[in-house]
Design a protein that fits this description.
The complex is a heterodimer of chains A (about 350) and B (about 350). By secondary structure, chain A is of the alpha/beta class. Chain A has 13 helices and twelve strands. The longest helix of chain A is centred in the N-terminal third of the chain and has 23 residues. In chain B, helix 4 packs across helix 13 and helix 13 packs across helix 14. Classes of the chains: A alpha/beta (about 350), B mainly alpha (about 350). At the A-B interface, helix 1 and helix 4 of A face helix 3, helix 4, helix 12 and helix 14 of B.
Chain lengths: ~350, ~350
């Protein structure tokens, strides 16, 4: 009797382990599955890792954008890419070290919050190559990527000034930190440049994750006669969009200008005038490619602006906005690129 | 010493081990359903934790706060209180530590101890407030402690932004070196993993937990209150006083945990939009550990290994983070629900008992 049970068990274990290993074949090479045929030909032995902040790779913002960039890089060049998601402050350093101690060729940290952890890891591992988006780290083996948000904001300011009927325009910011101030400064300068009579009201909500605050702020602005609001406030901006959608349904002619990604995809083109897009993905691709070609420049801060096509209007709005507005935008864009106009960083 | 030994008797050792295995098997099926190789994933998990010195050290770092929050929850449990507010008490400990760490100017042998005592008081008082509300007004501690979590979060953010965060920053200044409790030589041994004295303090706290509850009169009163408050009152014990006392000690444990995270790991505190989750993990750890000090330590080790090793499963076997959480949850589910495991083990356990009788 006992023997019988034993044999049944051993057969079961064997077949189970066979099944397990069989199932494992497919995902064992996650890198190959998405890249398709061309990647297989020029497969690279380079490995690039990326550490997200607490937002994770589905945050609809820069983490997602950066990861999309790396995935695109993988399908183009066959470079191996991988990400590690951080669930809390304590995990930034070990997550970075996962890649660094395993001798990956380049490790990305996404966001301002990773600046200190990257500095620490970079100093402890002088041979490793690291890079950061939206933060500046002074270390000989770190490339910092910063964006000239003020230049892109200037252009959406021009759009707002041209499209506004009431000549009253709003700006809703998140927390008052240097990066958000660059948005405000550029936006104000853009509005003034295109229409000196227009007035800009700006309010900081003090939070990036409070849609309710965004909604009430937008509500008071629209009630004051503002007809276009530019928000640079992360999730708080969702409330701005909700308020605009509600008013639009009641026949009011109000608009929102989105931020970071093309927000008309989420909120619809009937309330989204345009979006100030930050091309984190392209920046990540560019720096990673340079590294792969042996052109990694540590200790350098790359400032990406209009000239590099790293900030600007969303693609979809280039189709929906009137031609004369776009023409004006192009004129200002040319002036900024040529250096004729310098956009301020502080409001 | 009975309680200490009891944990190691075969029964209470066998059940959790079997429970962990059950959990891993269920987790394996979840991964199979998702099209991933569970064996590869589990190997990656253990490789991440035990594979090299750095990650092993970081796992210890991950386990330490879990011991504190687990002990805090367990202590209140023993007195019949469900302290969901460990989260908030932990935060109060953290902010006190960072405040004292930045503002005080003392020699190292005073700075760190005074800071830790300050955090202990802050966490303790924060919890005692909920205990006091229960004692004098009969407000249920689950409600008050949950609400005090959010009060603590926003109070901490307020204190940080008004006193400690330089303009244009999202985090406080770094604490003075004299307040840090890192162990330099040990960190070096562990390839610069962030090891600190907090781990030893946590183990010491577990020992004191045992002494206080099972070797002192206060502890006897606290446990009596937990088992049956009416009987305790009838026996002449001051139940209200014990409720406040129990909450204070529970909160104090959480406060020390918060101090150790600041002084040993971060050295600063960031403004946070959400609760960090130490206290909630502590509830799971206390449940796994059956509210005994040794149990909490093992519970924290299990929880720490699973959460830290999860990163390895992602990189080593490509298992997505969401699925890893399912695996962790199924392990904890089986460990916490011993009833199910005991049911399956009944034949074996019964057989053993028969033998013992003979």
């Amino acid at each position: 009797m006992n023997k019988k049970i034993l044999s049944v068990i051993s057969v079961a274990t064997l077949s189970l382990s066979l099944a397990l290993t069989g199932c494992g074949q497919k995902p064992a090479e996650p890198s190959g599955s998405e890249s398709g045929a061309p990647a297989a030909e020029q497969k690279s032995d380079k490995k690039i890792g990326m550490v997200t902040d607490v937002g994770g790779v589905n945050d609809n913002s820069f983490n997602q954008s950066a990861w999309e960039g790396l995935q695109k890089l993988q399908s183009e060049t066959g470079i191996n890419v991988q990400y590690a998601q951080s669930t809390g402050d304590a995990e930034y350093v070990p997550n970075l070290n996962t890649f660094v101690k395993d001798k990956w060729d380049l490790t990305w940290g996404i966001g301002f919050l990773l600046a200190d952890p990257i500095k620490q890891v970079a100093e402890q591992n002088p041979d490793a190559k690291l890079a950061i988006v939206d933060g500046e780290v002074a270390a000989p083996n770190v490339t910092s990527v910063m964006f000239k948000e003020q230049e892109g904001s200037f252009l959406v300011g021009v759009v707002a000034a041209e499209m506004s009927k009431s000549n009253k325009i709003g700006f809703v910011g998140g927390i008052k930190i240097p990066v958000i101030e660059r948005f405000e400064a550029g936006f104000k300068a853009g509005v003034k440049a295109a229409n000196p009579n227009a007035e800009v009201v700006s309010i900081y909500t003090g939070a990036f994750d409070k849609p309710d605050l965004g909604k009430s702020t937008a509500s008071s602005m629209y009630s004051q006669g503002v007809d276009i609001i530019f928000h640079a406030s992360g999730g708080t901006g969702d409330g701005v969009f909700n308020e605009a959608t509600a008013r639009k349904k009641n026949g009011a002619d109000v608009w929102v200008i989105g931020v970071d990604k093309d927000q008309s995809i989420n909120f619809g083109e009937d309330v989204t005038l345009t979006s100030m897009v930050k091309k984190v993905d392209e920046a990540v691709i560019q720096v990673s490619k340079d590294m792969a070609e042996g052109k990694f420049e540590g200790g350098k801060t790359i400032n990406l602006g209009l000239k590099d096509n790293a900030v600007g209007l969303s693609e979809s709005s280039l189709k929906t906005l009137p031609a004369e507005v776009l023409k004006k935008v192009d004129e200002f864009k040319a002036k900024i690129i040529s250096g004729e106009i310098t956009v301020p960083e502080k409001p | 010493m009975n309680k200490f030994v009891q944990v190691f008797t075969k029964d209470s050792f066998l059940v959790p081990v079997v429970a962990i295995i059950f959990g891993l098997i269920v987790g394996a099926f979840a991964m199979l359903a998702g099209g991933f190789n569970p064996i590869e994933a589990y190997v990656a998990l253990f490789d991440k934790v035990f594979g090299d010195m750095y990650n092993f050290g970081e796992t210890i770092r991950q386990i330490t706060p879990l011991i504190f929050s687990g002990l805090a929850v367990a202590f209140a449990f023993r007195t019949g209180m469900f302290n969901i507010g460990v989260e908030g008490q932990f935060l109060m400990g953290m902010v006190t530590a960072v405040y004292l760490g930045v503002k005080l100017d003392l020699p190292f042998f005073l700075h760190a101890p005074i800071t830790i005592v300050g955090s202990m008081l802050a966490g303790g008082l924060w919890a005692a407030f909920a205990g006091w509300l229960k004692a004098v007004r009969g407000v249920h501690e689950v409600i008050t402690t949950i609400m005090l979590n959010w009060t603590a979060l926003y109070l901490v953010n307020f204190i940080l932004t008004t006193t400690l965060v330089p303009e244009g920053q999202q985090r406080s200044e770094t604490i003075k070196e004299s307040a840090m409790i890192n162990i330099g030589w040990l960190s070096e041994m562990f390839d610069s993993a962030r090891l600190h004295w907090g781990t030893l303090i946590a183990l010491g706290a577990a020992f004191i937990f045992y002494i206080v509850l099972w070797k002192t009169r206060t502890g006897f009163e606290l446990r009596a209150t937990g088992v049956n408050p009416h009987a305790a009152e009838y026996a002449g014990m001051n139940v209200n006083k014990n409720v406040v006392k129990a909450m204070f000690i529970s909160g104090a444990l959480a406060g020390i945990g918060g101090a150790c995270e600041i002084l040993g790991v971060f050295h600063y505190q960031a403004i946070s939009a959400a609760l960090p989750g130490y206290g909630f993990d502590g509830i799971a750890v206390a449940l796994i550990g059956g509210n005994t000090p040794i149990g909490v330590i093992f519970g924290a080790i299990l929880f720490g290994i699973l959460t830290f090793g999860a990163g390895g499963m992602k990189l080593g076997a490509g298992v997505p983070v969401e699925l890893i959480r399912v695996v962790i949850a199924s392990v904890i589910f089986f460990v916490a629900a011993h009833g199910i495991v005991r049911y399956f083990l009944k034949p074996i356990l019964a057989k053993k008992k028969d033998k013992e009788v003979l």
